[in-house]
Specification:
heterodimer; A: alpha+beta; Uridine Diphospho-n-acetylenolpyruvylglucosamine Reductase, domain 2; Uridine Diphospho-n-acetylenolpyruvylglucosamine Reductase, domain 3; Enolase-like, domain 1; 3 domains; five-stranded antiparallel beta sheet; four-stranded antiparallel beta sheet; 14 strands; 32% helix; 26% strand; B: alpha+beta; Ubiquitin-like (UB roll); five-stranded mixed beta sheet; 5 helices; 5 strands
Chain lengths: 281, 161
């Protein structure tokens, strides 16, 4: 399968990328790692006139210490995020989730920013970014703005990044010393999540002082399980099951061949309990 | 058309390609590296796996223009002076192939796996090879071959999955 013909632009700076987008107009598509985009183009589900490839903008890659947060370049490949020592120390939840994305080859090419802007509800990057209260840096013709993760995901495949804009950086507040786990439920290997649960907990004296829980594929966007987060405070291992019972509260999971909505609600409850228990260890 | 220069198996090539040309098609049809095969054409099966700057990628899911200025290694570039790469030899010795179609991708991913993790457990081998499908279900011997190169004794185990 071969994509329909398109014009190709590979800018080497952010300024040139924005200019290329502005010039290409409505029918341009931004390519990050291309691991979701290229299958779409090959199957001709999309046929943009222009592809703007961000792969040659070195400034958009890498993880740096921003003081109270980590600043992760949008074009940082999954495999670099997973291997990064700063991520391991200060945002372990992100590594636990990203290491479950697809397979090693895809993780070498796919990028954290590409996944966030693609915004597939079954993708594994949104839930940990949302749970860790990250801030997304978006740059456009009018300059730079920051968007809290809670306002970033708008709908299926739709984010706060508008036409002519680019996601450049993900700022993740440091969660040093937190335990974390990502529980992903799939039927076969290297597939999209049927349901995924991202959990980070700060444990103090054997019980939970603070908890953050993000859900994958329990609605059209990643979601927070806020009722669970509140119920977990003060709980030790014996109180987890009760506290996690409300994991599906307020969600609107899809029904498809992998499972109906009720099945997903059940999965969310079970996986939340497993993720929190694992994060406490 | 876009002019690209790509190093393939140590030899530089400069060619005019359409931007929509997939790397796997460029390698096979322009450079002639037909050892790299197209399997599923949907980025699932991993048969087209090559190394791009030393890291494994699915070459059906990369554009040739994205490889401009970079180094590609295919299955044809592993052997040195006619002597099989240890991973190729291990696949031979352990009968890690039946029809052989997935083999180029399996070997390229296996080499990448040991670069990142020289001493994997059996489970780590299976996880590390999860992006490569064998429809003869020959996984058991594939895992054995990878373990043999890693010097691991964990090749025997839970069988195909």
């Amino acid at each position: 399968m071969i994509p329909a013909a398109f014009d190709y632009v590979a800018p080497t700076s952010l300024e040139d990328a924005l200019a290329a987008l502005a010039q290409a107009g409505d029918d341009a598509k931004v390519m990050a790692g291309g691991q979701s985009l290229l299958p779409i183009l090959r199957m001709r589900l999309g046929a943009p006139e222009t592809v703007v490839d961000l792969g040659r903008i070195e400034a958009l890659r890498g993880v740096r210490d921003g003081g109270d947060h980590l600043a992760i370049g949008a074009m940082t490949p999954y495999s670099d995020v997973v291997a990064d020592p700063l991520v391991a120390e200060h945002a372990g939840l992100l590594a636990r989730a990203v290491e479950t994305v697809a397979d090693p080859q895809i993780r070498h090419r796919g990028t954290i920013g590409g996944a966030l802007v693609h915004a597939d509800p079954a993708g594994d990057v949104g839930a940990p970014v949302l749970a860790l209260d990250a801030t997304l840096v978006v740059v456009g013709p009018g300059g730079e703005r920051t968007v809290p993760a809670a306002e970033f995901f708008r709908n299926l495949f739709e984010t706060a990044v508008g036409d002519g804009e680019l996601l450049t950086e993900i700022r993740v507040p440091k969660h040093t010393g937190w335990g974390s786990a990502y529980e992903k439920f799939v039927r076969v290997s290297h597939q999209w999540s049927i349901v995924g649960v991202a959990a980070a907990v700060r444990v103090d004296g054997g019980s939970i002082a603070e908890a953050k829980v993000g859900l994958t594929n329990m609605g059209s966007t990643p979601m927070r399980a806020t009722a669970v987060e509140q119920a977990l405070v003060g709980k030790d291992d014996s109180g987890l099951a009760d506290a996690c019972a409300a994991a599906a509260e307020g969600t609107s999971p899809p029904s498809d061949l992998n499972g109906d909505a009720d099945y997903r609600r059940h999965l969310a409850t079970v996986l939340t309990r497993r993720a929190v228990r694992s994060a406490m260890q | 058309m876009t002019r690209i220069t790509v190093s393939v198996d140590g030899v530089p090539y400069t060619d005019e390609v359409e931007p929509r040309t997939l790397l796997v098609h460029y390698l096979r049809e322009v450079v002639g590296k037909v050892g790299t095969v197209v399997g599923c054409d949907t980025s699932n099966c991993g048969a087209c796996t090559v190394h791009l700057d030393g890291r494994s990628v699915k070459s059906c899911n990369v554009l040739a223009v994205q490889a401009d200025g970079h180094e590609v290694t295919t299955i044809e570039g592993l052997a040195v002076d006619g002597e099989l790469h240890p991973m190729q030899a291990a696949f031979h010795e352990n009968h890690a192939l039946q029809c052989g179609y997935c083999t180029p991708g399996m070997i390229m991913q296996a080499v990448d796996l040991l670069t990142e993790n020289p001493h994997p457990t059996e489970d780590e081998i299976r996880q590390g090879m999860e992006g490569n499908l064998c429809r003869c279900t020959g996984y058991h011997n594939i895992v054995k071959a990878v373990a043999a190169v890693a010097g691991s004794t964990s090749g025997e185990g839970s069988g195909a999955r």
